[in-house]
Amino acid sequence: MSTFSFTVHRDPRWWQHPLVFAPDRWTPEAEAARPRFTYFPFGGGQRQCLGEPFAWMEAAIILAAIGQHWRLIHVPTHRVDLNPLITLRPRYGMPMVLEHRMADLPLHIPGAPQTAQALWDRERPPKIVTGEDL
Ligand code: HEM
Question: Cβ distance 14 to 31 under 8 Å?
Answer without folding.
Answer: no
